[in-house]
Amino acid sequence: MPDSTENEALEILQTLISRPFEDCIPVGRNFPALTTKHSIYAVRHRTEGLLYIGKSQNPKQRFMGGHKALVWCWIARYAPDDVRLTAYPLDYRQWTTLSLNLETLIIQATKPPFNAQIPMRD
């Protein structure tokens, strides 16, 4: 079954990176367009690409409560308009059995710079 998990991770990664930047969610105060469903999410930069990959039961709540990846964007002096979010909702099976493996595989495949600076949470 590792092959199917890897294929699923690659499909999710492809979705996260192929979504046009303009269609991703702008960074803001309330994140009105960000999902509240279990998801793998990405913080992306307009030209630098993926900056951070994570998973959350409720990404909207996670970002509204503050997120270190956004602090790293500020420290790196990225313009707020050049940073956006995108999420890939996971179904119940994906969340309960695969979410950690999917997140790990995607991080290993892409090596986003902010994941190296921010330890993974359980």
Report on this structure.
- The longest helix has 19 residues, at 92-110.
- 45% of the residues lie in helices and 20% in strands.
- It has five helices and four strands.
- It has one domain (2-117): GIY-YIG endonuclease (3-Layer(aba) Sandwich).
- Strands 1-4-2-3 form a four-stranded antiparallel β-sheet, sandwiched between helices.
- The mean pLDDT is 90.
- It is globular, with a radius of gyration of 13 Å.
- A hairpin with a 3-residue loop joins strand 2 (39-45) and strand 3.
- The relative contact order is 0.23.
- By secondary structure, it is α+β, with helices and mostly antiparallel strands.
Task: Give a quick summary of the entry.
The chain has a single domain, classed as GIY-YIG endonuclease.
